[in-house]
Amino acid sequence: MAVGRSRAWRVAGSAVIVGAIAWALLQFGVPTVLSDPEHPARPPLEASSWIAGIASLVVALVALVVALRQDRRRLTEDEPAPSSISQTASGHGVNFVGNVTGGPGPGSTTGVQINQSGGPPDPPMPTRP
């Protein structure tokens, strides 16, 4: 639920920023540096935009490589030792027995055995008006 809220705030914030930029362009117009091809500041501005674009691609590739290495390392690591606490829970014909590790949130649950006694309950009969 918190992830959805966080994403909603990011989308809303982005929409506000894009709206503010659009309003500023309509209110004040495009800066002359961008619209005049003969302006003396235009070549350095274009050069810096190329450098920034290439640098952002390099940063994105480095981030991708780091993420892939972390995933590979996570897959090759040994499983954590199971907890010494044995937990049992049952309800509605399902029995969970085992050691649970990882706690709340993402993580693996190890050493759990699930036993089900009997089949699922029958669905209710449909009613006709």
Secondary-structure blueprint:
Blueprint: H1 2-28, H2 32-35, H3 42-76, E1 86-91, E2 94-99, E3 112-116
Explain what this protein looks like in three dimensions:
By secondary structure, the protein is an alpha+beta fold. The protein has helices at 2-28, 32-35, 42-76; strands at 86-91, 94-99, 112-116. A three-stranded antiparallel sheet has the order 1-2-3, with no helix packed on it. The longest helix is centred in the middle third of the chain and has 35 residues, at 42-76. The radius of gyration is 29 Å and the shape is elongated. 0% of the residues are buried. The mean pLDDT is 76.
Q: Tally the helices: what do you get?
A: 3
How many strands in all? 3
What is the approximate shape?
Answer: elongated
Strand content: 5-15%
Mean pLDDT: 76
